[in-house]
Amino acid sequence: MASFPETERATIQPTQRSALFEFIHQVRTLRSQKWGNLWGYVFVAPTLILYAIFQAWPIVRGFYMAFSDYRWIIPETHGWASFNGLANFREMTQDETFWRSLGIAARYTFFYVPATLVLALFVAVMISKVKRPALAGFYRVVSYLPVILPVSVAMVVWKNIYHNEFGYLNYFLKSVIGIEKPPNWLGSSQWAMVAVLIATVWMSFGHQALLFLIGIYSINVEQYEAAAIDGAGGWAQFWYITLPGLKPIFVIVLVLSAGVLGTTVEMMVLFNSGGGPAESVLTTGLYIFRTAFEVGDMRMGYAAAMSLVLGVLGMLISGLIFKLLRTEKA
Amino acid sequence: MPSAIKKLLRPSTLLVNFSLLLIVLICLLPFIWSVSSSLKGREELFQTLPSLLPKDPILGNYQWILTRRDMSMIPLNMLNSFKVTLWAVVIQTVLATMAGYAFARLEFKGRDLMFYSLILLIFIPRAGGLMAVYELMDYLNLRNSHLGLALLFSSAMSVAVFIMKQNFLGIPRELEESAIIEGANTWQVFLNVAVPLAKGGMVVVALFEFLYVWGEYLMTLTLIDFPELLTLSVAVSKISGWATLFTSSAYSTYGAEAAAHVVAMTPVILIFIIMQKWFIRGLTDGILKM
């Protein structure tokens, strides 16, 4: 089996929990630490200042915003004055568009995650079977090309491919496969979600395939040889050696995929920042953007509240996945 | 039959090669289609059914998007993209290298506390982050500013600092120690001894930052109000609107759009193909080890 010349066998372990543990330990022992080399502060100061202003502050401010009736157009609501407690969250429970958008985001995630995972795993296993290093390298690069494209570029390219009259996809379906009336991909509410899924899976499966591939290459070759001697076929080897060996990668991929719930840009570009035909792809992310930047008073407070709910939901899901996959012995 | 051919015709090998060929086609078709559409004139795009290869390739679409400044801002947008990306890459690489060195080598009070704060903040959901950033940038007068974009995009520093710290930890300490004995101060040791040995990590950090900033969409869309200040990745999603003014002449909006897509994707593809080894190193050192 080929291997990456440039990597050692990577020990792959998600370490969120230990980072938290370390953090608490450091807080406890801070008093007893010596001042030491003061150059250290000079070296880290620019990074920490930039991080504090542009990353940490927006987290704090955004959290507060979620509990206020902050409207960009109305200056009186700016600053800290417009605190309104849980009113945003109460409004959310009554907001049909919010619930519908959450359903759309959930449905998208429900199809997107397994589709990407299965395709990525399949491609990774196939590439790992290629013996010639140069050919395997070619496959790796090609399957990763869609991933490095800017999201917006990938989506406008697909928009043109889906074009009802001039797009290649419907030409292919009509003239090569012979389907009389191919779907109007971006124009019908039935097909809009499918169109988004095809385009986004195309764009992202390569990333997970590469992660799986790194995982497969780090599995000890002797295990396969021993299994082959014992008479295990390809399927048995895949089931009993490859899959268990890839568990750490599964954890990473699945934990990260909770973020899919917030998908926004893909739909925005494919459907000219609208929610698609009959709002059929209006995800919560799009609804948040619309509420804060596009309609009415620019209700940033309500948008922040929705995005807090979405963020907490994502964190819960990834925490749950992390716990399930980590404790269960493979 | 020779054994090589026999091997090639084994069902498992056939399955591998056939499915990988299919994957390659699926991955590349949108690229091929964009390039081919960008080379087609109005006649060919509208009168014949779409074909993958242009019968009569022309460069007019490129000429249009790259010259006509009154309708197409693409040349300006391209310049903006390079400007923002360059600044963000330089700021992030320099700062992450300094911080990574301090976290790996220097000992001072609260060092690890600061490091783990940087790491832990990755996992906190950015609720309302977009709105809070909008307010912040407005307050700092950094809306509609390329400097603002560069500072914002270079500030997501956690992974870069992590990679640089690991990188410095992997370098043998002896050289730095002997420089200290010879009387060099911390800054001199860092600049003259450590940095030259850490170039690999810096390349990885710069590469990932380049890919991120070049493709950033949502923040740029939110913070920039004027078409002439947009970056290329946002501009490509707007060009169909700009190009409709142009449909009466020999080139179609469709072809012009495709040309813009090709222009926007070329830098990242080139960089990726040239630097793919560094890229895989970055994945294994960064994301998978965190």
Could you characterize what this model shows?
The complex is a heterodimer of chains A (330) and B (290). Chain A is mainly α. Chain A has a single domain (96-327), classed as MetI-like (MetI-like fold, Orthogonal Bundle), CATH 1.10.3720. Chain A contains 14 helices and no strands. Chain A is globular and about 70 Å long. Chain B is built from 17 helices and no strands. The longest helix of chain B has 32 residues, at 74-105. Chain B has 2 domains: 3-66, no CATH class; 73-235, MetI-like (MetI-like fold, Orthogonal Bundle). The model of chain B has no long low-confidence stretch (mean pLDDT 86). Chain B has 290 residues and is mostly helical. Chains A and B meet through helix 1, helix 2, helix 4, helix 5 and helix 6 of A and helix 2, helix 5, helix 6, helix 7 and helix 8 of B.
Classified in CATH, the superfamily of the largest domain in chain B is MetI-like
The figure for the number of domains of chain A is: 1
Largest protein-protein interface:
A-B, 108 and 101 residues
Give the quaternary arrangement of the chains: heterodimer
What are the secondary-structure elements of chain A, in order, as H or E? HHHHHHHHHHHHHH
Largest sheet of chain B: none
Report the CATH topology name of chain A: MetI-like fold
Give me the Rg of chain A, rounded.
24 Å
Overall CATH architecture of the largest domain in chain B: Orthogonal Bundle
**Alpha-beta content class of chain A:** mainly alpha
Q: Quick one: biggest sheet of chain A?
A: none
Give helix % range of chain B: over 70%
Supply the number of structural domains of chain B.
Answer: 2
Helix content of chain A: 55-70%
The CATH topology of the largest domain in chain B corresponds to MetI-like fold
What is the CATH class designation of chain A? Mainly Alpha
**Through-space gap between termini of chain B:** 51 Å
